[in-house]
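Hi F.,

I've been meaning to write this up properly since the lab meeting, where we talked about keeping a consistent format for the predictions we share between groups. The idea is simple: the sequence comes first, exactly as it goes in, then the structure tokens exactly as they come out, then a line or two of notes. No screenshots and no reformatting. I'm using this chain as the first example so we have something concrete to point to.
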Amino acid sequence: MQIKATKSDNAKIAKRRTREMKTISQMVALYCEDNHEDELRTESAYCGESVCSECAALDSYAVLRTQRCRKMHVKTSCEECENHCYAKEQREAIRLVMRYSGPRMLKRHPIAAIRHLLHK
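Output, unedited:
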């Protein structure tokens, strides 16, 4: 799946949006790798890593929400945003993924993790 930044983004926002889509996808892939059987991981996440069909659906949803975020130019984190664009079920699923993957991202994808922590 190849999703691009929106046409109305300036270069800085487009770069941030693309980076955030990759970071959330890496978090989903990390969660899937550690929590789901290898033989179930037959699909590709946005970041290119293999995931199961359940995680692929969450990955697609999260990437699409990031792509459509109208607050990217002022956003610090989705949790702090006044517009919750995730449906309740997906919001809980992504929270679970972030709680698990967040600390582990420092080891697997340190630059992405640090940027995410600094909201850049």
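Notes:
The chain is about 60% helix and 5% strand.
The chain has a mean pLDDT of 87.

If this format works for you, I'll send the rest the same way.

G.
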